[in-house]
Amino acid sequence: MKPRNAPRRGFPAGQMLVHVPGRMRALVRGSELGLVILAACVGTIAGIAVSAMSLTTQGLREILYRLPHGARLSASTDVDPFLILFGPAMGGLILGLVAFGLARWRGGPQRPVVDPIEANALHGGRLSVRGSVAVAAQNVISNGSGASVGLEAGYTQICAGLASRLGLAFEMRRSDLRTLVGCGSAAAIAAAFGAPLTGAFYAFELIIGTYSIATLTPVVVAALCGSLVAKALVTQSPLVTASGFDALTTRAITGIDTLPSLALGLACAGLGILIMRGVTLVEQGVRATRLPSFLAPAAGGLCVGALALAVSPQILSGGHGALHLHLDGDMPAMGIGALALLFVAKASASAISIGSGFRGGLFFASLFLGALAGKLFAALMAETIPGLSGLHGLSGLESLTMFGLTPLAYAVIGMSALAVAVIGGPLTMTFLALELTGSFPITGLVLVAVIASSMTVRKTFGYSFATWRFHLRGESIRSAHDIGWIRSLTVGALMRREVETMSVDMTLRDFLKAHPLGSPSRVVLVDGAGRYAGIVLVPEAHALAAVDGEAALAEAMRYADVFLTAGMNAKQAASAFDGAESEALAVVDDPASRRVVGLLTESHTLKRYSEELDRQRRAIMGEAG
Predict the structure, then answer these.
(1) pTM over 0.90, yes/no
(2) Over 60: is that where the pLDDT of 242 sits?
(3) Handedness of CA 432, 437, 440, 444 (dihedral sign)
């Protein structure tokens, strides 16, 4: 019997899992209220963790760049040019040395840390807390040194990791553990933006992979707790200023205003794909240079610093301060050239940062880039379509023109549409726009843009940034939907191991003597070397003997080149049965050696697959006992 504190599957040796008392475990496992209480605890912990990371990174920026207390790096205009140039490189060098030291300590390169999406898709919600802490710490160094990455990846990683560990301590069921990981991620995003609805739908769309009544209460409670705790600990200023609310429209929104919103959504889809491809190109370029991995972040940081010095400090760090400026209704308008240059510089800086090895994500960068794209779109429309309302401060009769949106409104729409293209989650970004602006008419136009952007990316590219990264390393994950159970439902677990085999060289007469009518209906044949040769159906062998008593046994043999391997999952096996049109197939250990290790029938495979599907459906609907 396994000791109670033995390491559980999915965790490295040495990570001991502490279990809570049995009575408390029973309360959480047997009561929906217990899960909600645990979700509230996760939300509270997440709010504290997000606040701590935010304060730490802000402190690092203030020390490194000599900023006044509370000043945002990307909104500062009087930073020493020397620090702008070399600050990100210093952070990259520290990050590289830390990664090099960890690799030496662990005895070599390790597998990438499982993130919340992968954990819920493949591992039933299991994350390593140690790995999550390492990712969060590296994210703090990256963002705090000015690299063009956001903190949201670190927020969700550490909060989901802590939630996972808490759920494992309570020995939660697979579906409940996945929900708790979603609660941690929801609380992280809600705390980061002060937006509970955004956090909740981030969990539903991106981390859990579905919405259900069973997951609604715990996820929303966690998001509310995370947001409230973070607001109590850290002062958060709104991204859209109060004066900006009145600057969104010049007249009532009408149906015609959906046309530019739709066009902006399509444009953002294309830009999002280019940004994701750009990160991959940078990574390939860094590998091509054969630069030592621990020096790559420093080199990337130097490039980012040079871009910031040449264009604007707005491209540094996550860009919170810069986004505040661009979503301020009182900000002076920028020209088309300046907006385009800033967009290209920020996109390049983000691609260079991630591609060279800095830790972080594109969540906030995509929001900032989307706001720039929206303002650029508005400026281009003002030049190409004369008389657009709201774009040049028109008033009186002149305001009765074609569209009623201002550049600020287009910035909000573009922000959501580009974030959807890169991150995914149409409702997540729609609720973010609603919670930032408080404007339902603008939110309706945002919904039009995000649907257009999401559908275009899904049909033309097929991935979000996170799932694209999985694809590059060979994982077939398109979302957080739980497919791990399919991988565990393998042919090796389903097959019958006691399989009689006979030599393909024996005579048909001897075969019929050993297998009269009424005996097992199929026999697996092997060659002289013990390799799988095919399957003989006993009734067909008797029918062949009745026609030609001198026929060779091989003439009755079928499926010589069709077999299963023990590592296949049930879905792959079902496809093999359909392709072969067979009711049973042999299982071999390896396609090269072809040693027979079992036999699997289609009926048993489909029965077990159907049972698991039904169990998953009941778990999603909250019906599992």
Answers:
(1) no
(2) no
(3) negative
